[in-house]
Amino acid sequence: MILLNDARNIEDYLENGGFKALRRALEFEQDEIISEVESAGLVGRGGAAFPTGLKMKFVKNEKNTPKYIIANADEGEPGTFKDRGLMEKNPYQILEGMIISAYAVGAKKGFFYIRYEYREIAEKIKNKVKELHRLGILGNNIYGSKFSFDIEVVLGAGAYICGEATALMESIEGKRGYPRIKPPHSTQRGLWGKPTLTNNVETLANIPVIINMGGEKYHKLGKEGCSGPQLFSISGFVKRPGIYEYILGEKTIGEAIELAGGVDGNFKGVMLGGGASGYILNRDYLDMPLCFSDAKKRGVALGTGDIIVLNESVRIWDMLLNIAKFFEHESCGQCFPCRYGTRRMREIIEKIVNGKGTSEDIKKLNATARAMKIASLCPLGKSAMTAYESAMKNFHDELMEVIK
Ligand SMILES: Cc1cc2nc3c(=O)[nH]c(=O)nc-3n(C[C@H](O)[C@H](O)[C@H](O)COP(=O)(O)O)c2cc1C
Ligand code: SF4
Fold first, then answer.
1. Which residues have CB under 6 Å of ligand 2?
2. Which listed residue, of 55, 177, 257, 260, carries a Cα 20 to 30 Å from 102's Cα?
3. What is the mean pLDDT of the segment spanning 187-212?
């Protein structure tokens, strides 16, 4: 294991080489750290797969100060629970990654934003932050260097949208979690208008690994287009649901399901990349390697790395209705296409589930999907119809069977 090591206590973490990467990083120039991360090929594990080193470089190169860093642990995507496992089992590796990243970009203050429902974990992280202060690993002159850094733990606002980086910033600033219009990007104007680096907690846990191993060596873990370890939340109709760690590209979807005990029942399909904004796929995808570039070639995405397994008892329209209800509830309501579109989507799908769907309804759903994709302000509205569109492609006959 590279990420999911069990090191809940500082003694265990230090014994296994914990904070060695930080001590090493503090001897590097900031640009040297960033170039290690770039050569590692690490991309964000929060869903968008943005190159981490490049984002660090954007923040580092901004002249405006102070700069901030955010660890995103809002984890609201249905079917995603890997950040929870990581924070419970190996919290210091996330904190170490956060401190190294802060040093690399020149941030003196960080915020650890944790999903409201994970209150108990938030308390534990707060205690660990205090512990690191006592040990001189946080606070002034870390390990006797010129670098000073502090972390504040913030409990999330209890909304899926607050995981979106700019809504999250609004939330930290004490406002309603409305996503901001981009540009400017938060790397330029983030928290309180200052340059801000936002990373998923799993992304941050990779940083000490890269510093210890070296970017080039890390890059060799995996294959072209995807490198490093990734956590997968595997759930649904599978015999051993849980969090699994694999090197990217090493396993196919089918192999990952087998390693999770196999399907409970007869295989029907999977939802890949997130229970809300993910893709509903059929058996043709079982041989697809769990790798960003392979997914892209097949027109899908790994997203937050979850695989929800569906068996023959799952009716795809029922599943789409659940998803539509989720989006109607979680749309922040700031922009019309998503506020109204998510409601229309739920109403039409409900009509279909009740056996009253017509071909006109399918046309309306398609038009709603187009409008939301083009005109929604943030990725929530833009991706709300991904599940429907992918299901139409992969389960077309089943979906059209009930349409009059
Ligand atoms: C609706 C919505 C919810 C999101 N929720 C999360 C979340 O819970 N955790 C997370 O890390 N990123 C989430 N993101 C992605 C963040 O906006 C951002 O891309 C991410 O935190 C960047 O970190 P990374 O580059 O390490 O992936 C969400 C995005 C959207 C649109
Ligand atoms: S797309 Fe939806 S979630 Fe995003 S700003 Fe508009 S209403 Fe809010």
1. 161, 179, 331-335, 338-339, 376-378, 380-381
2. 177
3. 98
Residue range 270-322, pLDDT digits in tens: 999 987 779 999 999 999 999 999 999 999 999 999 999 999 999 999 999 99
Q: Tell me the pLDDT tens digit for each residue of 16-43.
A: 999 999 999 999 999 999 999 999 999 9
- Domain 10-219: give its CATH code: 3.40.50.11540
Task: Output the pLDDT for position 281.
Answer: 98
Nearest CA to ligand 2 atom 4: 378
316-401 matches 223-311 in CATH topology: no
Boundaries of every domain in the chain: 10-219, 223-311, 316-401
| Architecture field, domain 316-401 | Up-down Bundle (1.20)
- Return the HEC string of the chain: CCCCCCCCCHHHHHHCCCCHHHHHHCCCCHHHHHHHHHHHCCECCCCCCCEHHHHHHHHHHCCCCCEEEEEEECCCCCCCCHHHHHHHHCHHHHHHHHHHHHHHHCEEEEEEEECHHHHHHHHHHHHHHHHHHHCCCCECCHHHCCCCEEEEEEECCCCHHHHCHHHHHHHHCCCCCCCCCCCCCCCCCCHHHCCEEEEEHHHHHHHHHHHHHCHHHHHCCEECCEECEEEEEEEECECCCEEEEEECCCCEHHHHHHHCCCECCCEEEEEECCCCCCEEECHHHCCCECCHHHHHHCCCCCCCCEEEEEECCCCHHHHHHHHHHHHHHHCCCCCHHHHHHHHHHHHHHHHHHCCCCCHHHHHHHHHHHHHHHHHCCCHHHHHCCHHHHHHHHHCHHHHHHCCC
**CATH class of the region 223-311:** alpha beta
